[in-house]
Design a protein that fits this description.
Elements: E1 7-12, H1 19-32, E2 37-41, H2 48-58, H3 70-84, E3 95-99, H4 102-108, H5 122-132, E4 140-145, H6 148-155, H7 175-191, E5 195-199, E6 201-202, E7 205-206, H8 209-222
Parallel strand pairs: 1-3, 1-4, 2-3, 4-5
Antiparallel strand pairs: 6-7
Length: 226
């Protein structure tokens, strides 16, 4: 098998953690460094499978995401990525940057109320997306770790979203789930070498966007990803 040419970087975090801001910052820094960047955000709510995810998250289709069994819900997210990445070719860019990727799917579908008595499906989701669908493997997942209360306040600043309208979706609205998601991310980071944790808090408050972005870029260089 030939060596992968494009570096794949995935931005991860609980809802309201500032992922989209850091996604944009990292893309800007990569472009400024002269790198060719392909960037994608998931779910793609305008797509066939992504629109179904949106209906589950909003509850508008009559079935809520937190009432669907984990493997079935994970499959919708995986299919959305599989469809979106059908045009991806390794080597056409230096960096492939994702806002949410396989790890997000694995963690979120393992931490809902209906999953509490079940074993998590972390490994199953990676098997599904990497080995069955053949999606590109991430060189690193960057988990932006924030306090859940601070993140919850951030969600309300997002404004109107097409798939939802105003307010929070099914997953965002559950504070207990967000706390479990954070814990599951950290638990998974402790056992996987491809997860990088960036602490975004200082003295109970968010660190500056610039400070977090600078630490991210330096950490990626230290790992020889950039």
């Amino acid at each position: 098998m030939s060596e992968k040419k494009t570096k794949v970087i995935a931005i991860e975090g609980i809802d309201g953690s500032g992922k989209s801001v850091q996604f944009a910052e990292l893309k800007k820094r990569c472009l400024a460094a002269g790198l060719r960047v392909d960037s994608r955000e998931f779910p793609v709510y305008e797509s066939f499978f992504g629109s179904a995810v949106g209906r589950y998250l909003s509850g508008s289709g009559g079935v809520r995401a937190d009432a669907v069994d984990g493997r079935s819900m994970a499959l919708w997210y995986a299919l959305d990525r599989w469809e979106n990445l059908s045009d991806y070719r390794d080597g056409e860019s230096d960096v492939l940057l994702f806002n949410r990727y396989v790890l997000s799917n694995a963690v979120y579908q393992s931490t809902r109320d209906i999953d509490l008595e079940q074993p998590d499906i972390i490994d199953w989701v990676f098997e599904l997306e990497y080995n069955h669908f053949g999606l590109p493997k991430a060189d690193v997942f960057i988990f932006y770790d924030v306090d859940t209360a601070q993140a919850g306040a951030n969600i309300l600043k997002k404004g109107r979203r097409d798939y939802l309208g105003e307010g929070k979706d099914v997953y965002e609205a559950s504070e207990s789930m967000q706390a479990r998601v954070r814990a599951k991310y950290l638990e998974t980071a402790a056992r996987r070498q491809d997860v990088l944790v960036i602490d975004c808090m200082a003295n109970g408050l968010f660190r500056s966007v610039e400070d977090i972005a600078a630490e991210t870029f330096q950490a990626l260089k230290q790992r020889h990803i950039l």
